[in-house]
TrEMBL record:
Residues 8-67 form the DUF7030 domain. Residues 77-172 form the Lysine-specific demethylase 3B PWWP domain. It holds the Pfam family Tudor_KDM3B. It comes from Elysia chlorotica. This is JmjC domain-containing protein. Residues 174-238 form the Lysine-specific demethylase 3A/B tudor domain.
């Protein structure tokens, strides 16, 4: 089975480095990495010098979210690409050692040339611990791995993490590839401004020309036009 990925950035984890000093690849594990979520982007063109990302850093919380021109601000800005298995001495679950699920990244900004070398940062699902490992030690997750990988068979939480991640990818794929089947469904949408983090809405229509959804905010009954590739939203409910 193929590796599960999606191209749009919204809703993904990111990790980044901002430094006034020259970064040494030999000390990549010592860089001051900061991680969080991508909530919205300015354009689909990530190579644009003006490409802007609305980020939430883990260490400040959503109320301190900020828009950043990542090509100007960061030496490294890496965004979740897919799920992988990486060997680890897991401190909180049994079995303590074995392959554990972790996010691996692709580079949006890589001024130091990290991805020209063999070291890669990964983020474990169990505790969001960021580790730097050799690329050869990363095995990409495929559907069905939960039935064969030892840690998944022995630790029920692993199966839950895998399902949560996989279900979200599937929901995003529907939003982007077959949105017309979702008319009448409810979604939770990230609120880029205001005093709340999310609002809930009903999908009313889809514009094939500009790829946007017309949503009715089900609290104040206002209409919004949102592009699911530019702002995070997710389906509410099962199925």
């Amino acid at each position: 089975m193929s590796v599960k990925t999606r191209e749009e950035l919204v809703g993904k984890r990111f990790t980044s480095v901002k430094s006034d000093n020259k970064l040494k690849l030999s000390k990549v594990s010592e860089w001051e990495w900061r991680s969080g979520f991508v909530r919205a982007v300015s354009t689909r063109d990530t190579s644009s010098a003006d490409f802007t990302v609305l980020v939430e850093f883990d260490d400040t919380g959503w109320k301190s979210r900020e828009y950043l021109k990542v090509h100007e601000v960061f030496q490294e800005f890496l965004v979740e690409h897919t799920l992988s298995w990486v060997e680890r001495e897991e401190p909180n679950y049994k079995p303590h050692d074995g392959p554990w699920p972790a996010l691996c990244y692709r580079a949006i900004v890589d001024k130091v040339g990290l991805f020209e070398h063999s070291k890669r940062p990964v983020e474990f699902l169990s505790d969001r611990f960021l580790a730097v490992v050799e690329q050869k030690d990363i095995t990409h997750y495929k559907d069905g791995d939960e039935n064969s990988v030892s840690t998944a068979k022995e630790c029920p939480d692993v199966v839950k993490w895998l399902k949560t991640w996989s279900d979200y990818q599937d929901g995003q794929k529907i939003l982007l590839t077959t949105p017309t089947v979702l008319l009448g469904y409810r979604v939770e949408v990230y609120r880029t401004e205001g005093t709340t983090q999310w609002y809930t809405a009903v999908i009313k229509s889809y514009n094939h020309h500009n790829k946007s959804l017309t949503l009715t905010d089900d609290t104040v009954l206002e209409e919004h036009n949102e592009d699911p590739t530019l702002i995070q939203m997710h389906l509410i409910g099962d199925g």
